[in-house]
Design brief:
Layout lengths: L1 E2 L10 H6 L3 E5 L2 E6 L5 H11 L2 E4 L4 E6 L3 H8 L12 E7 L5 E11 L2 E6 L4 H10 L7 E4 L4 E7 L3 H6 L14 E8 L5 E9 L8 E7 L2 H14 L6 E3 L1 H10 L15 H4 L15 H10 L4 E7 L10 E3 L5 E11 L4 E8 L9 E6 L2 E8 L11
Parallel strand pairs: 4-14
Antiparallel strand pairs: 1-2, 2-3, 4-10, 5-8, 5-9, 6-7, 7-8, 10-13, 11-12, 12-13, 15-18, 15-20, 16-17, 16-19, 17-18, 19-20
Helix pairs in contact: 2-7
Length: 385
């Protein structure tokens, strides 16, 4: 993330973020809020999601619809997880791979209908991903649509997200399991006394908490009304608007990958440790042959969790050293963890350094600062107590 300089794209909520005093930054070509100082900033936002509820504008994310008689075959060809196992209105984590077994992008695949799928993609890879999907599904009887600008997407995240959302919809949210979605009415009584019919409501997120992502019409007026309604109705639950800063610290505590950091076009599935979502037994998919070869050859590096033992914060791209001071790897993501009150990081190291308890160091301002390998995810709802 860098301070805003060019003229990046804006979500329909841009003016609302500015009215609320958000600190704005350029992120993957988008003008986005990094934090809301008047609500306490990144730490307060992070803690609100862990203990109550927070709101995120995630409209910069992309959406690609694949539908038609051979939509399933197309998605199976494109993605490493087994979409044939999805029921209608179910979703799962997956990834699109290059023939080398490295990442085009990680995605969430939603099964909308009998021959109808939605791929939710990352903001910084929108154009690349759409071109990849379009170019690699030409052999299948299906249509590919870029729906990225059709919706404003808002994430309501935290243990009280369900309480907040239930006040705004007629859907019984207790019947919607994690990584499933439904459609329902979103009622805006406090801002406009109007209903938004048939809105997609998905029980997913990127925070290691329970939560929902709602899809509403992308015009500025409707988007602002929904955001303001969520803020107003959420007051009793201590709702806080959240920016990219807390989104990053929350996903890091949960060991959730970020494209360009833990996964990229130079990192394969085995290295990234996301093989539980890679179904090698399913019909052939792009990258499978390379993954079989890489598995036979064995790992040369693997992603681990680090906790700083010495004083210092491991930041992205810092060198990881062995006890003799030789570089053995690098940090992909590093930050203080507000809820855990520790300095943590994800890093690539050789397999012989990956065992929990292994001692390494992170180079900070020219000095090796002691760290150790710890289990991940660093945080999980079961660890809350």
């Amino acid at each position: 993330m860098s301070v805003l300089t060019a003229t990046p794209a804006k979500t329909a909520l841009n003016a609302v973020h500015r009215q609320m005093g958000a600190k704005m930054v350029e992120f993957n070509g988008w003008d986005m809020p990094v934090e809301y100082p008047s609500f306490g900033g990144i730490i307060a936002e992070h803690m609100a999601v862990r203990t109550g509820v927070g709101l995120f504008d995630v409209s910069h994310m992309g959406d690609i619809r694949v539908h038609g008689p051979e939509a399933l075959a197309a998605v199976q060809h494109l993605c490493m997880n087994d979409a044939s196992k999805l029921a209608i209105r179910q979703a799962h984590y997956s990834a699109m791979l290059y023939p080398s077994g490295t990442f085009v992008d990680d995605v969430i695949v939603h099964r909308l209908g009998e021959h109808d799928y939605l791929l939710v993609i990352n903001a910084g890879t929108r154009e690349k991903d759409f071109n990849w999907v379009r170019d690699n599904t030409k052999a299948f009887k299906c249509e590919v649509e870029n729906l990225s600008d059709n919706y404003t997407q808002i994430a309501i995240q935290g243990p009280k997200a369900v309480d907040l959302m239930q006040k705004l919809t007629d859907v019984d949210l207790s019947t919607v399991k994690f990584y499933w979605f439904t459609r329902g009415t979103i009622t805006l009584l406090k801002t406009t006394k109007r209903n938004l019919e048939n809105c997609p409501i998905a029980r997913t997120g990127y925070t290691a908490e329970d939560g929902f992502e709602i899809y509403v019409p992308s015009d500025e007026e409707t988007s602002a009304q929904v955001w303001k309604e969520l803020m107003e109705v959420g007051k009793e639950f201590g709702v806080v608007p959240c920016g990219l800063g807390s989104r990053n610290t929350l996903r890091l505590e949960g060991r959730l990958a970020l494209y360009g950091h833990e996964i990229s076009d130079t990192i394969n599935v085995w290295e990234a440790g996301v093989d539980r979502w890679c179904k090698m037994e399913k019909p052939d998919f792009i990258g499978r042959a390379a993954l079989e070869k890489a598995r036979e050859e064995g790992l040369k590096r693997t992603l681990v969790g680090l906790e700083m033992v010495g004083r210092g914060i491991a930041r992205d791209d810092y060198k990881v050293l062995d006890q003799d001071g030789k570089q053995i790897g690098y940090v992909t993501s590093g930050s203080p963890a507000p809820f855990l009150k520790k300095n943590i990081a994800l890093a690539y190291v050789p397999p012989q350094f990956a065992e929990v308890g292994s001692k390494v160091a992170v180079e900070i301002r020219g000095q090796g600062v002691e760290a150790q390998v710890v289990p991940t995810p660093f945080y999980g709802k079961s660890k809350k107590a």
